[in-house]
Design goal:
Layout (H helix, E strand, L loop, with lengths): L3 H16 L2 H11 L1 H12 L1 H10 L5 H21 L3 H19 L9 H29 L5
């Protein structure tokens, strides 16, 4: 049993070095922000679709909200990925995600069935995403980057 302990420590140390390597960390932050980068690009390429989405969710005036969401998501994602006020960008995306989730995924108002089940799953996936952004902010503030 004690023979495995040193190798487990080496494996843990190797894993820690690999996961904390700058390219891996940057890729992970890009992955975390992927929906907030892809979404605005899609909205820019199909602005009428973005307006329809805002109208569907009762956000008026739709052009104001569409442009605001596009700018917000791109700027906050850039903050998270670049490290410039990462904690602030992460907290902003966390709050935005929770707000958007409660607007768009009200599964509790749906009739039982597949659509409700899919909305429920998406709701809790988004809650988890918001939690991940809070962890990014906490880690950033812990290391002193938020000072």
């Amino acid at each position: 049993m004690t023979d495995n302990l040193p190798s487990a420590r080496r494996l843990g140390s190797l894993t820690a070095r690999l996961v904390s390597a700058s390219p891996i960390r940057t890729l992970a932050l890009l992955a975390l922000c992927a929906a907030y980068i892809q979404g605005p690009i899609t909205k820019i390429l199909d602005f009428y679709g973005a307006l329809a989405e805002m109208t569907h969710f009762g956000l008026h005036p739709a052009p104001f909200f569409a442009v605001s969401v596009i700018v917000f998501e791109l700027v906050a994602s850039a903050m998270v990925v670049s490290g410039i006020l990462r904690w602030a960008g992460a907290l902003a995306l966390s709050g935005f995600t929770l707000l958007a989730t409660f607007i768009a995924l009200r599964f509790w108002e749906m009739a039982p069935g597949m659509e409700r089940m899919m909305a429920t799953n998406a709701f809790f996936e988004h809650v988890g995403l918001a939690g991940a952004f809070i962890l990014v902010a906490a880690f950033d503030l812990e290391k002193g980057a938020g000072a």
